Amino acid sequence: MIEVKGISKVYRMGKEKVVALQDVSLKIGKGEFVAIIGPSGSGKSTLMHLIGGLDSPTVGNVLIEGQDISKLKDKQLSKYRNEKIGFVFQAFNLENTQTALENVMMPLIFAGISKKERKQRALKALEQVGLSEFVKHKPNEMSGGQRQRVSVARAIVNNPEIIFADEPTGNLDSKSGENIMQLFRDMNANGFTVIMVTHNPVEANKARRVIKIMDGQITSDIIKEEE
C-alpha cells in the first residue's frame, strides 16, 4: 500500500543545511498498525509528513498504491489528503468557535458533500468515538480526551484508508491517553491503516509494528508476534 524509496529531506536554514531524513526506504501494508518512534529531532514527524503529502522529499519517492505522490501538484495532493488520509494531531487543531459536530463536518465541506449527508456522516463518526452526547459542545466545554476524540472523528469521517496520528496522547492524562490508544486499536481492527508517531515507548509498544528512527535513519523495524 505504502512504499517509500530512498527518501531524504534537507532543510535550508540560512547558510546551514539540516538533514532531517537520509536515504529512508520502507513498506507498510494495508491494515497495519505502525508506530514510528524516536526522540525529538530524529525525523519521525518529517517521515509522517512526507507519507501524508504534507511535504515533499528532497530526494526519493513516496508511492501510495503505486502512485508517486511526491510528484503530484498542490491540487492533486489536496485531493489525495482529503480522500485517502485522516490526520490526528497532538494539539487537536479544532475550531474553538464551532461545535463538535461542525468540526467533524469540515472535511466533508471540502469534499463537496451535501449538507444533509455531511451531518449524517459526522453524527455517525462521533458515535463511533463515543461522543453522541457531545455533538453540540464546543472544544472549550470538553476535556482533553474528548477533544482528541473529536479530532479522531474528524479524521475518519471521510472513511480514509490511512490514519496518521502525530503524538496523539501527548496532551492527555494517562487514562485519556489509554482510551485514545484503544480507539486506534479498534479503528485498526475495523480495517483502517494506522501510522502513529510518538516518542513514548509504552505507547509505541501498543502497535503491531514498531519502527525506530534516529538521526534521520531507520535503526530498527520490528513486527511483534500476535498476542
UniProtKB/TrEMBL annotation:
> What are the protein's GO molecular function terms?
ATP binding; ATP hydrolysis activity; transmembrane transporter activity
What sequence ranges are listed for the domain ABC transporter? Answer: 2-227
What is the enzyme's main class?
Answer: hydrolase
Which UniProt keywords are given for this protein, alphabetically ordered?
Answer: ATP-binding, Hydrolase, Nucleotide-binding, Transport
The catalytic activity of this protein is classed by the Enzyme Commission as 3.6.3.-
Q: What Pfam families does the entry give?
A: ABC_tran
Keyword Calcium among record annotations: no
- What's any one GO cellular component for it? plasma membrane
Q: What is this protein called?
A: Macrolide export ATP-binding/permease protein MacB
Q: What is the organism field in this record?
A: Clostridium vincentii
**Gene it is expressed from:** macB_1
